[in-house]
Amino acid sequence: MNYFLIFKSSLLTAALTLTLNATATDTPDAPKRMKKGKWEKIFDGKTLTGWHNYLKSGQPVSDKWQVEDGAIHLNGRGAGDILTDKDYGNFELELEWKIAEKGNSGIMYHVVEDPKYKTTYMTGPEVQVLDNERHPDAKQGRNGNRTAGSLYDMLPPSDASAYKPAGEWNKVRIVVNNGKAEHYLNGKKIVEYPTSGPEWDKMVENSKFKGWEAFGKAQSGKIALQDHGDQVWYRNIRIREL
């Protein structure tokens, strides 16, 4: 038996083990696992607890926003936008929406609730909710940047086939984390962008929001659902903070 070879092999094995352990635990540039919060329902399917009309915190939500069959249903004009009582910064939001024929609505985030801003969209970027086939807004933007799932008037969805037409449920996932945002529609990532910096500033400059002092500036704020005067439904709304 060659004891020298056995001894040499043992030394090599020990050295390799130490190297692997050091790589796994001691490398300063090793990626860190992102700690995510627990999923939280922000609509219980029965009431509008946790929501209020814009600039009307503590007051009952307009009765034109109703809860029907486990969904929030906007069934008339003049209801006003509703938004969460709580602010969110980095988050992952999931929900489903269904729009009526010729309908228009939207989901805003990082909304700043302040009387000097008359509407939610003066501060909060919007994920478009739309009947692409019948609402004129779909053709009024540039290259589809006002169609369903778009970053409204700024970036179009990369895959128009992800959208389901009026009367059908669309599942949305919005991820905002550390200066980056992503929109998913029915399981497909369709929009990605920075939420601040030169690229963001250029997108704002080339949009209808040019010169709006507070648009997209906040890195934390309310989640809002838009009253655009058309019937729309939202359900299965949940969020987790990142």
Structural write-up:
It is a single chain. The chain is of the alpha+beta class. It has a single domain, classed as Exo-inulinase, domain 1 (Jelly Rolls, Sandwich), CATH 2.60.120. It is 14% helix and 30% strand. It has three helices and 13 strands. The chain has helices at 3-25, 137-140, 198-205, and strands spanning 40-41, 51-53, 65-68, 71-74, 82-84, 91-99, 104-111, 126-130, 170-177, 180-185, 188-194, 222-225, 232-241. Strands 1, 3, 4, 6, 9, 10, 11 and 13 form an eight-stranded antiparallel β-sheet that branches. A hairpin with a 2-residue loop joins strand 3 (65-68) and strand 4. The protein is globular and about 40 Å long. Mean pLDDT is 89; it is low at 1-33. GO terms for molecular function: hydrolase activity, hydrolyzing O-glycosyl compounds. Residues 38-240 form the 3-keto-alpha-glucoside-1,2-lyase/3-keto-2-hydroxy-glucal hydratase domain. Pfam families: 3keto-disac_hyd.
Q: Specify the CATH homologous superfamily.
A: Exo-inulinase, domain 1
- State the assembly state of the protein chains: single chain
**How far do the termini sit from each other?**
59 Å
Q: Which bin fits the share of residues in helices?
A: 10-25%
Indicate the low-confidence ranges by residue numbers: 1-33
Brief digest:
Strand 9 and strand 10 form a beta hairpin. The protein has helices at 3-25, 137-140, 198-205, and strands spanning 40-41, 51-53, 65-68, 71-74, 82-84, 91-99, 104-111, 126-130, 170-177, 180-185, 188-194, 222-225, 232-241.
